[in-house]
């Protein structure tokens, strides 16, 4: 791995909050145990028969030894013992459950056997002790597939590519908006510029002559834009003129006589209403 100033010794990206490239590190050593039967790993040297299970013929996992001296995986032995008259599959002798014991010496020897990494096909050339497999995969194997450290990113990347992915390729890495300088996830940058960024120059929807309008100024501009549609301020007195702010201005300047007439009509009709209301209440 190339050294990088942005990384500390634990391989943690110095961001805020810190992104951990090795979330599993320090989680405790554990040894890989297949769900059923023995190990299917590819061993560097041919494994001696004494390390193979008499039932599944794979390399023993958590070996148990019978009184007759034959060895079985823990799960294979459990399967044998579940029958009514358990028999050793190697010598046909009956198995007495209480005489079966954990063969820890054999287990230690097996866990020390050298294997090829499970990601050999992906490019890992490591040879390691069987007992070290899980630690290697969890912490070290450069060809292990990992999830991106950013929860929103669903991409899987090899450990050796993770740093590059996080810093340079991840769609969810922070990018700086060139207009407002705020930090935005890369994947939403375009949308931010197109619909949200307050510092982007937008054109007036009414196609007026103002050319330097920022998105943050748009709503204030719309109420005063010369091309915005509006109504005459004498509308409530009956003027039906409609037009742009500019046309309304011109209309109001040139329609003083009409507007005064409208006012007269309006006040006349108001008086009539009052009179008829009075005569009605006078009955
Ligand atoms: Zn077995
Ligand atoms: Zn036997
Ligand atoms: Zn590996
Ligand atoms: Zn990512
Ligand atoms: Zn912006
Ligand atoms: Zn405008
Ligand atoms: Zn008017």
From TrEMBL:
Single GO MF descriptor: zinc ion binding
UniProt region (Disordered), positions on chain: 1-25
Alphabetical keyword list: Metal-binding, Zinc, Zinc-finger
Domain TRAF-type: 135-190, 192-249
Classification via InterPro entries: TRAF3/5_RING (IPR049440), TRAF3_RING-HC (IPR027128), Znf_RING (IPR001841), Znf_RING/FYVE/PHD (IPR013083), Znf_RING_CS (IPR017907), Znf_TRAF (IPR001293)
Any single GO CC term annotated in Swiss-Prot or TrEMBL for this entry: cytoplasmic side of plasma membrane
Protein's UniProt keywords contain Cytoplasm: no
Leader sequence residues: none
One Pfam family it belongs to: TRAF3_RING
GO biological process: innate immune response; regulation of canonical NF-kappaB signal transduction; regulation of cytokine production; regulation of defense response to virus; Toll signaling pathway; tumor necrosis factor-mediated signaling pathway
ZnF locations on chain (TRAF-type): 135-190, 192-249
Source domain of life: Eukaryota
Gene3D superfamilies xrefs: Zinc/RING finger domain, C3HC4 (zinc finger)
Residues covered by the RING-type domain: 53-92
Name listed for the protein in its UniProt record: TNF receptor-associated factor 3-like
Organism of derivation: Leptonychotes weddellii (Weddell seal)
């Amino acid at each position: 791995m190339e050294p990088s100033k942005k990384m500390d010794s634990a391989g943690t990206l110095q961001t805020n909050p810190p992104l951990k490239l090795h979330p599993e590190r320090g989680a405790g050593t554990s040894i890989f145990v297949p769900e059923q039967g023995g190990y299917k790993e590819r061993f560097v040297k041919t494994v001696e028969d004494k390390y193979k299970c008499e039932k599944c013929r794979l390399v023993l996992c958590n070996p148990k030894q019978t009184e007759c001296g034959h060895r079985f995986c823990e799960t294979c032995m459990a399967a044998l013992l579940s029958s009514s008259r358990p028999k050793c599959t190697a010598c046909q002798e009956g198995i007495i459950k209480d005489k079966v014991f954990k063969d820890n010496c054999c287990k230690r020897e097996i866990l020390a056997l050298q294997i090829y990494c499970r990601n050999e096909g992906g490019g890992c050339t490591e040879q390691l002790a069987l007992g070290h497999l899980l630690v290697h995969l969890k912490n070290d194997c450069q060809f292990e597939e990992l999830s991106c450290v950013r929860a929103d990113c669903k991409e899987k990347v090899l450990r050796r590519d993770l740093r590059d992915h996080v810093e340079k390729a991840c769609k969810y890495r922070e990018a700086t908006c060139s207009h407002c300088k705020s930090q935005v996830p890369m994947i939403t940058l375009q949308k931010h510029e197109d619909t949200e960024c307050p510092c982007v120059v937008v054109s007036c929807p009414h196609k007026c002559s103002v050319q330097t309008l920022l998105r943050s100024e748009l709503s204030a501009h719309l109420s005063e834009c010369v091309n915005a549609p509006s109504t005459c301020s004498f509308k409530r007195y009956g003027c039906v003129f409609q037009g742009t702010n500019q046309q309304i201005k011109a209309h109001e300047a040139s329609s003083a006589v009409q507007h005064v007439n409208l006012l007269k009509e309006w006040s006349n009709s108001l008086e009539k209403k009052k009179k008829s209301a009075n005569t009605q209440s006078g009955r």
